[in-house]
Amino acid sequence: MEEELVGIKNAAISFTLECNSLEELEEVKLQFLGRSGKLTQTIKNIATVPLEKRPEIGMLANEIKNIIEETIEQKHETLKSEHYKKRKEAIDITKPGIKPKIGHIHPITQTILEMIDIFKGIGFQVADGPEIETDYYNFEALNIPKDHPSRDTQQTLYLDTRNSKVEPGEVILRTQTSNMQGRIMQKIKPPFRVIVPGKVYRYEQVDASHGFEFWQLEGFTIDKNITMSDLFGTLDYFIKKFYGNDTKVKFVCHNFPFVEPGAEAYITCTVCKGKGCTFCKRSGWVEMLGAGMIHPNVLKAAKIDPNEWQGFAFGTGFSRMATLKYQMDDLRLLTNPDLRILNQF
Amino acid sequence: MLAPLSWLKEYVDITLTPSVLGERLTEVGLGVEKIEKVDGDVIFDLEITPNRPDCLSILGIAREIAAIEGKKIKYPKLKNDLEKIKAKKILPLTIETDHKINPRFTGIIIDGVKVEESPEWLKEKLLKINQRPINNIVDITNYVMLELGNPIHAFDYDKIKDHIMQVKLTRGGEPFKSVDGLNYRLPKDAVIITDSEKIIDLCGIKGGYNSGTFDSTKTIFIRVPVEVSLLTRRSSQALGLRSEASSIFERGVNAGGTIDALKRCVDLILELAGGEVASKIYDLKNQEFNPWKIKLRIEKLNKILGIEIKETEILNILERLNLKPKKSTEIITVTVPTYRNDLKIEEDIIEEVARLYGYNKFPKTLPFGEVPITEIPYFKNYKIDEKVKNILKSCGFSEIYTYSLISEKALEETEISPEKTLRIDNPVSLEYEYLRPTLKSNLIKALIQNKPNFDEINLFELGKVYLGKNIDDAKEEYYLSGISNKKNYYEIKGIIEIILFELGIDEDVNKNIEVVDEGILFELNYSKLLEKMTNKKLFKQLPKYPPVIEDIALIVPNEIKTGDIIDEVKKQSEVIKQVALLDEFGETRTFHIVYQDMQKNLTRDDAFKIRDKFLKVLKEKFDAEIKK
How far, in Å, CA of B203 to CA of B226, rounded? Predict the structure, then answer.
């Protein structure tokens, strides 16, 4: 009986190893392990073995059963992977993939979402406000009274006031997203941290770097101890997150009526990395943001006490930030619905 | 503003190289736009912000350099002391002015000048900064203005009829010929000077041709005024006429500098054109233009800037800026020279310290303290936009952004009356005259634009439209609109239904879909959708019992609407959970029907009973028959 068992084992192993397909292997499995298989039958015959030898034979039989099962299992794995390999080999994998027809999200949206993400991380909330705006919120609340020379740089589009109660010149298309400073400051008490992405309008002739409609991102925060160092730190963080850690930022003094002290941020040109190219007019630097500490007159206009509260504000033309990021050499590419442009994003 | 290095060096010793100096000037607020080497000299082109009229002069820029370099300013030395000159003869002149429209009127008469070409050095200096030399008198007035920042005008004394000068406002419409020979009609409330019969000066902007200094001029009256910013600005804008003088006046001239400018001017005239002083110094004003004081709290400075600048350094910076700081306990009092009329409040002085300390030496910190959590007014959740846009993207639509301003033609093409649409008074062009009340016209245009390059075009825009027929009821709303030239009505409908499902809204979308020449168009009032949106997605228990599912082919007359059939079937029993059109061919429509009882096991016989019931109703209502 012992010999018989060992013979079955050897036969089963050699048959198994010779198998070339899963079907053949299945047959071998039946032949030995099936209900009427050789091993099964032999095990049934153990009853005929003398009583004292039975435990020993029984153990041997079990051991052999395990070995056969394991061998078959291993062979099964091998054959299976070979089987799939062959099936894949039958496929010409060098052919291009068949892509589902999907569309594209506009680079402006991608830019807005990315900026929001960056500022959300440091506690800013997003606001959205009117584009049809009063002279008050667009200018006066921002310490830009009528006849202020800085209005020259923001040539304004005025709405037709016929058939209405509004005085001509009082309702305009906002020239800057800063209009939301007054609107928000009047409605809630500090502290707050706000960003406002949105469309703005100027009376300007269109060329590669100017448009009468473009996008800005405004940001402002007011609390008891917001400092100019916080302003520089926040802008530095924003720019590095948006353009990459290797971008350098430098700040210079600049005048905007609604901030004091005022600043402007330049970044190393994203195209040439500061070496100088046509994008940055060979200077290596690109003007990117206007900013500063909110002017006490702006706070006072919103009935916020400048002795108790202080804050910073900044604004950037993000149409420009987007074009610079994607190395587009013309702002008009953003409002051109040509799919040959959009499909690149 | 152009500033040659050689000229700047007359007033301040400069040790920095031009490129480093350029960077430093930019950092302190005088943005250097260009540095050009011309004939061995270096010319800086500077962007002067409206708050710094003092830097519209070479001396003003030299003062900034002196502050950067920590050097003293060297003022031009005068050969004659005007205060000590006794006029040999006094020529008559009557000046009538109004301080409200002319705060200061400084002037003097010089007799016996010889008007001729300027000497080479003067012509060269003017040419270097793109000023056309005219004659020695005019050139000197221009030179002194460019040097010191106070505009000066020279009148031909003999052409001032009856030697009367009256400062007054225009009524509007008066003709005026400027000294350079151009004709204007003056606006109302422009400040002018008249003699006894004519207008001889448009104050602060241009002198009159009729009293200008030409070769034959022998006697001149030099006027160094202070004009009212607002009045200068308004007239200059109304006329579309800008001059160097008007740029300075509208930003605010150095009101304390008229006498110094007059002295400098007379000194040069006596030297280069001869003649002698023939009047007292006129200086008509109703207030003294003295320096003013501002208090700076060191604690406040540190609190605003977020750094601690050493007190000695603060004082040193203020000293370099000629602000004469005086310290007592924690307060520094500065005295602001009259040329710095941009310095009015404590924050202005803080900026002065910060900009010379160097913005790039500041540490970079983030706001600390508690993060505000109250939802701000005007809050917008861009996550929802993102979700909606991603659905459209995965359905094959590409996003576009188009102009909010559209033409009258575009309105008419979408059958909207221009009279009922918001309009811009001063559009950049007629192409962009109206605020769009729909996104449709831009989408159609965009589709047509893409036709030559693409076979299938699917576009969408999520953007504002501007509603209301006039400003009183103007309203801005976000619309979500799209167009496709290849997808059919049902595909578009399905996509919108998916979007509404995602927003938790259940409503009919047929009103939002339109068939147009170019394909299928949809337009949704996205702002309204956001209002209706429900965020509550709640789990419903899975059914415990299996459903009965069958597909039934019905023969229905063509005019019967599928939606009506589905509604009718659903009405028949609560057990009918789903009715969907599977297929249609000719008069046959195949419906997929799911019967499901949530309480018990539904047998096929139970289901067939319900089926018989709705078949009977369909027969009666729609003459529908089951297909055998």
Answer: 10
CATH number at residue B607: 3.30.70.380
Range from A241-255, A269-283, B193-207 carrying the lowest mean pLDDT: A269-283
Chain A residue with CA closest to B366: the answer is: A230
User: B233 and B143 in one domain?
Assistant: yes
Query: Would you say residue B370 lies in a domain?
Result: no
Yes or no, beta carbons of A159 and B471 under 8 Å apart = yes
Tell if the CB–CB gap between B453 and A147 is shorter than 8 Å: no
Beta bridge partners of B398: B459
Say whether residue B458 is in contact with chain A using an 8 A CB cutoff.
yes
Give pLDDT < 70 ranges for chain B.
Answer: none
Q: Is B36 on the interface with A (CB under 8 A)?
A: no
Q: Is B152 exposed, middle or buried (0-12, 13-18, 19+ CB in 10 A)?
A: buried
**CB-based contact B379:A127 (threshold 8 Å):** yes
**Are B428 and A205 an interchain contact pair (Cβ–Cβ within 8 Å)?**
yes
Which ipTM score applies to this complex?
0.89
Taking the CA of residue B453 and the nearest CA in chain A, the distance in Å comes to 8
pLDDT at B261: 97
Distance CA B177, CA B159 (A): 15
Q: Centre a 10 Å sphere on the Cβ of residue B271 and count the other Cβ atoms it contains.
A: 14
What's residue B163's pLDDT?
Answer: 97
Q: Is residue B373 part of a domain?
A: no
pLDDT score of B78? 94
The answer to whether residue B540 sits within a structural domain is no
Question: What's the rounded mean pLDDT across residues A226-236?
Answer: 98
User: Residue A124 pLDDT > 90, yes or no?
Assistant: yes
pLDDT in tens, B30-67: 999 999 999 899 999 999 999 999 999 999 999 999 99
d(CA B467, CA B448): 26
The terminus-to-terminus CA distance of chain B in angstroms comes to: 93
Q: Do A105 and B399 touch (CB under 8 A)?
A: yes
> What is the fold of A108-342?
BirA Bifunctional Protein; domain 2 (3.30.930)
* CATH code (residue B101): 3.50.40.10
Residues ≥6 apart with Cβ < 8 Å to A87: none
Judge: A103–B457 Cβ closer than 8 Å, yes or no: no
Q: Is B454's Cβ below 8 Å from some Cβ in A?
A: yes
Tens-digit pLDDT profile for residues B574-619 = 999 999 999 888 889 999 999 999 888 999 999 999 999 999 999 9
Average pLDDT, chain A: 92
CA distance A179 to chain B (A): 12
In chain A, where the domains are located: 2-89, 108-342
Question: Is residue B24 within 8 Å of B16, Cβ to Cβ?
Answer: yes
What domain count does chain B have? 5
Would an 8 Å CB–CB cutoff place B173 in contact with chain A?
Answer: no
Alpha helix segments (H runs only) across B273-327? 298-305, 311-320
Domain check: are B123 and B163 in the same one? yes
Q: Are A106 and B356 in contact, with CB atoms under 8 Å apart?
A: no
Shared domain for B415 and B466, answered yes or no, is: yes
Note the pLDDT of residue B362: 97
Contact list in A for residue B449 (CB cut-off 8 A) is: 337-338
Partners of A171 on chain B (C-beta within 8 Å) are 471, 474
Cβ–Cβ contact B51 with A under 8 A:
yes
Q: Does residue A152 surpass a pLDDT of 80?
A: no
B26 chain-A contacts, CB cut-off 8 A: 252
